[in-house]
Structures are given as C-alpha cells and as structure tokens.
Amino acid sequence: MTREWFTIAELAGLSLPDLPPSERQLARAAKAWDAHARKRAGRGGGLEYHIDALPAAARLKLQIMAAQQDKAERAKSPIREALWARYNALPETHKIMCEGRLKALLEALEMEAAGLSQTAAMQLAASRHDVSLATIYNWFGMVANIERADWLPALAPNFAATAKRADCHPDAWDFLKSDYLRNSKSGFSSCYRRMQDAAKKKNWAPIPDERSLRRRFKAEVPETVIILARDGEEKAKKLFPAQRRSRLHLHAMQAVNMDGHKLDVFVRVPWLDKPARLYLIGIQDLYSGKVLAWRLTDAETWEAVRLVIGDMVEQFGIPDKIFLDNGRAFASKWITGGARTRFRFKIREEDPRGLLTTLGVETIWTTPYSGQSKPIERAWRDLAEEISKHPYCDGAYTGNNPMAKPENYGKAAVPLDGFRDHVAREIARHNARTGRKAVACKGRSFDETFTASMEDLSWVVRWPTEGQKSLWLLASDVVRAQRGSGEIHFQGNRYWNVALNAHAGQKVTLRFDPDKLHQPIQVYDLKNRLICEAACIEDTGFDNQDAARHHARLRRDHIKSVKAATETHKKLTAQELADILARGEQATAPQPARPAITRIANGNLATALQHAPAEPAEEIDFNNTFGQALRVISGGLDD
User: Fold this and answer.
1) Residue 565 lies in a domain
2) Kind plus residue range of the DSSP H or E element containing 26
3) Residues 15 and 105 in one domain
4) Rounded CA gap, 126 and 112, in Å?
5) What letter does residue 283 receive in the DSSP assignment?
6) CB count, 10 Å around CB of 637?
7) Do the bridges between strand 493-496 and strand 507-512 make them parallel or antiparallel, or are there none, so unpaired?
8) Strand spans (E) along 53-157
9) CB atoms within 10 A of CB 11
10) pLDDT tens digits for 191-206?
11) End-to-end CA distance of the chain
12) Does residue 367 form part of some domain?
C-alpha cells in the first residue's frame, strides 16, 4: 500500500524530481502546502505533508518506489520457505499430483496467451486433465498472490476454423503440391498435367480444373514456402530484414543464454586411460555479458546442464528467460545411450527443462552455432584464445581443426584439477577486463556492468529458497544406510546426521553435487520425502590427538542431547510406576492350599503341631508358618 504522508526530512532524503534538493529549500516550498499539512503524531511532533501536495513527477516516483518495495518484501516472505518445506515432506504420489496440477494451469495460461478467451482456455485445460472447470478455477485460487516459482508447492495436494477448399482428392492435392515445391522449378501447368495422369491410374476423384487449384494453392501455401522449396534457403533468408539486437532494455539476470564449447586441450582425467578433450558448459548474462556459472565435463549431458543452472541460481538468482540450443544436451529428457559420462555411478534420469519450468523460467530455443541469437558464442571465441593457447596448456593444445594442429601436437596433457583452476582464473579475468565496447558496458568490465545493474532497484531478482536446492541436485539410485548409526557410505565418503539413526539399515535416496562430494548431501526416503541433510565425515590420522579429542567432545555432546531428549519422554521412574499400580489396593497373603489326602505326623513335628495354637485356616499367615514350625522343631530337639 502506497504511503501518503511524509515529513520534510523524509522528502529531502528521497531526492524526488521537481523538488528542491536541500531540507531548508523544501521547508520554504512547503509553506504553499499548508492545505495538505497535518500535525505529525509521535515523538518530536512537527508537520507532515500529503502526497497530493507534491508535483506529479514526485508522486509517480514515490508510487514506483512503493511498488518495488512491496515486490522485494514478497520475495523475502517466510511463506515461501514454509511452502517448499511442506512440499519436500510430501510422498512421491502427492508430488506427482502437484506436478499434474501445475501442468494444467500452465497449459491454460499458454492457451490464453495464444488468443483463446480465459473461459475457453480453462475449459480446454480441464477437459485435457479430466477435471471440472471449477477444479481449474480452484487451483488458480490456490496460487493467487503466489510467486510463479512457488506454484508447485502451493498446489500440494486451437481450434481454428478450416477454410473452404476446392473439392479435390487429398492424394491428388498432395501430389500436385509436392511436384511443384521442388528445386527443379517445374511450371504449375506441367505439374497439373502429371497429377491428372496419376489420378487416372489411381482413380483419384474428383479433380477440379487447373484455375481452381491455382487459386487454392495461392491461398494455402505461403510465398515464403514456395521460395524456400524452389529457390533455396539462402534466398528465403533475404525475405526477412536483417536484425539489429539491442540489450539495453534488459536488466542483469532478466535474461541469460547457455551453451557448451569443446576446448582444444588434452586433459588427463581419472576415469579414462588416455587424455580427453573436455566441454566447457556455461551461462552468460545477456545484459552485461558476464559468464555467471560454468562446469567442465567430457560430454554435453543433462547432468552438467542441470548443475550449471543450479550454480547460477544459487549465486545470482532466478532469471526470467533463458536462451538454449535445441540440442539433445539441453532439450532431451534422456542421455544418449552408450555415451561416456564422468560419473562412475547410476543417476536417475531427470529432465532439465522440468527444472526451468518449475522455477518459472521461460525457455527460448535458438539456432545452434548462431552468434546473433546466443552472444555466449562470442565469449567462447575469446575464451578459446585465452584458455587453450595459454602457456599453461603448451604441448596440450590440439588446434581448432585437423588442419591446424601445432608442431607439438599430443606432446603433453594437463591434469584435471590444475586445468579447472586455470579455467577459473581465465573466466574471472575475462569478466574483469575493462574497456569493453558493448553498448551496455561503455568501457566498463562485464563485472562492473553486472554489479551496477544489480544495484539498480528498478528490477527485483528472484532468489531461490533452501527447499528449491533439491531441484537441481543429482539423485542417485537407492543406497542402504549402515546398521547402528545409520551413516551412509557413498563414493568413498561417509555422511551422517542424527536423523539417520531412525533409518539405520534402510534404503534411502541421495541428492548431491558430484563436484562437491565433501559438502553435505540431502537424504530422502523411498517415497521421496526429505529426511535430513547429512554432513561429510572426514577421516583423521591415527595419531591425531586433537582430532580424537574433537570427536570425543562431539560424541559426548551427542549423548547429552540424546539423554536430554530421553528425559523429556521418560517422566516417571520405576518406583513411581509401581506406586501408581499399588495405589488403593490392600495387600493380603495368599491362602495355603490344603491337600486332598493327609497323613499322621510323627515325631517332634507332631508334638509341635499339637502345641501350636488352633486358628481357622483362612487366618493363617502363610509367610510365617514355615519359620514358626522350624522354631518349634528346634525347641523339641533341645528337649
């Protein structure tokens, strides 16, 4: 809601247009605003002035600032964290239900954007997903006032009229069009006569006259199609005016583009016996030209694409648009069969396009090897020079084509770890180099241009929540937690969290970053519900006493916390339990059982029984009978 009342000091601090810059000058100008003034409530008193007293430009600037502030506050809302925390705790069946609802809403929005009315789009989406129209409206109500990137957790739990055509057999019509749309450029009359000959052999009927089919052909087949089919692609391109693209209207992180480049360097990798040439997959900000995130991989796979997108989102935020090649590494759901990957374990196939759709990023497919549609290819040209021809790679450089091999081709190969550091240095140097001639840079570096745009409050960048991080981490096949502590052994590392005690010996699923296996991993149960985030347990030297003391202290702290939790649940002692059970009950001795057959007692025992007082059987204290008998017998023996 726009604020309406301001003091002189507040207006001076906002630097509004058409207002004096200093507080003293504002106070003199405010004498004409008495009709819109009131006494300020609160400590200090003074006057404050209504927004209607300000010039139009100043009022507009205040409204824009208020809208930006509201948008920023919504982006930081704790409701987002709660939504994703609840979504991560759902079983897989409920998550699939959320995805289906999101797909229905997206389809409705896409159809509405294509020209259908809102009601028609809703009805069509409802029909496709076998739900009622009211259900679709209810789902839209669930995501009202929710950011687009958070629709998935919030949902927990063109018919165009066909123009009239000349009455012609469809096979004959296809024959005529196919014959005419050839590079041979046959005349329409020749094609029509050949079609008539074919119609007689195939018994195609009816066949209209040539003039009717000419009119139909002109009405149905675009001129561009005719030129492309008969004259070729190059001439068809000339029908479209040359494009001059400007990026000045964009903002940092508003749109990015992504691509991969095969580096001309031999690298020694631990998973192959011979050196390999790696791909550099990266994302570039379209406004500033800065390379935001990158990874090295031996194949363009969806795993690498997913992780690079995650690196960008974690560090810089969620863009609105992303430009991608329509290639298998970026668009396909599945990895090419038999392709080698750098990961020596099984990974679940997941669609990187699904990640972008869930985050609310618009995907735009571009032409491969088109520098005009993907400026990152211009960056690859610079980086290929700086990375591959650097003295560090001397002897390992392969040349950019088989005819340009250097004299020392194949003489050396650089190690993977060192090459990764080398690429990081060169990309950082590429981003920091000043004197850039791009219109947005104006002589600044990519880093400076990007930072200045991010500090501009006219655009608010969306940021991910911790719960969204699981969307781009890779998911492994199920592994079994160790018995006892529940620790997880994965890729030579050990991971543990106290929550794994309850899952010891059970199968779980891991989500992880393969390049950061020493960082905590996320652990899910078989229903895809988040259990915990398990930290990596590092091995220590056998004689490292400091590490031993640190481990012992952590174990003592763990035992103390478990004992404290035990005390919160175990509120009664054993004695208190016994007292509760015995309360209100009177202790009575059990009655001795009388034998069915008796015999005459002999000796001192008979004498003792004769002298014993006669009492009713039911009043005998059975617990003392044996002791009394022993005393009587003992006395008889003494006599």
Assistant:
1) no
2) helix 23-29
3) no
4) 13
5) E
6) 8
7) unpaired
8) none
9) 24
10) 999 999 999 999 998 9
11) 111
12) yes
Give yes or no: residues 133 and 278 share one domain. no
Domain assignment present for 31: yes
How many independent structural domains does the chain possess?
6
3-state helix, strand, coil in the chain (%, to 5): 45, 15, 40
Per the listing, tokens 């208190």 go with: 576
Tell me the C-alpha to C-alpha distance, in Å, between residue 264 and each of 385, 410, 512, 539: 10, 11, 30, 38
Q: Are residues 408 and 305 in the same domain?
A: yes
> pLDDT at position 548, please?
54
User: What was the pLDDT predicted at 237?
Assistant: 74
Residues 6+ positions from 414 with CB-CB distance below 8 Å: 265, 266, 267, 268, 392, 393, 396, 422
CA-CA distance, 256 to 411, in Å (whole number)? 38
List, in sequence order, every residue forming a beta bridge with 347; answer none if it has no partner: 476
- In this structure, the strands spanning 321-325 and 362-366 are parallel
**pTM, rounded to two decimals:** 0.51
Longest dimension (CA), the chain: 151
Q: How far is it, in rounded angstroms, from Cα 357 to Cα 151? A: 11
Q: How many residues does the chain have?
A: 639
Residues 107-133 have pLDDT tens digits of 999 998 888 898 899 999 999 899 999
Q: Could you read off the pLDDT of 539-577 as tens digits, one per residue?
A: 544 444 455 555 566 667 666 766 676 677 766 777 777
Of 422, 454, 486, at which residue does a domain stop? 454
Cβ-contact 87, 142 below 8 angstroms: no
pLDDT, tens digit, 9 for 90 and up, residues 252-269? 999 999 888 899 999 998
Q: Please indicate, yes or no, whether residues 336 and 419 belong to a single structural domain of this protein.
A: yes
The answer to whether residues 172 and 198 touch, using CB atoms and an 8 Å cutoff, is yes
Specify if 598 maps to a domain.
Answer: no
Query: CB–CB of 399/359 below 8 Å?
Result: no
Bin 462: left if φ > 0, else alpha if -120 < ψ < 50, else beta: beta
Own/partner long-range contacts of 72-76 (Cβ < 8 Å, ≥24 apart): 72/457, 72/460, 74/147, 75/147, 75/460, 75/462, 75/463
Provide the b/e sequence for 309-319 (b: ≥16 CB within 10 Å): bbbbbeebbbb
Single-letter code of the amino acid located at 570: K
d(CA 405, CA 266): 13
> What does DSSP assign to residue 386?
I
3-state secondary structure 368-383: CCCCCCCCHHHHHHHH
Task: Decide which of 365 and 173 is more confident.
Answer: 173
Q: Please tell me the distance from the alpha carbon of residue 508 to that of residue 527, in angstroms, as a whole number.
A: 9
Pair (194, 136) in one structural domain: no
Predicted confidence at residue 179, as pLDDT, reads: 93
The CATH number of the domain where 220 resides is what?
1.10.10.60
The parent domain of residue 34 ranges over: 5-75
Instruction: Say what the pLDDT of residue 592 is.
Output: 62
Q: Please state the φ and ψ torsions of residue 422, each to the nearest 5 degrees.
A: -65, -45
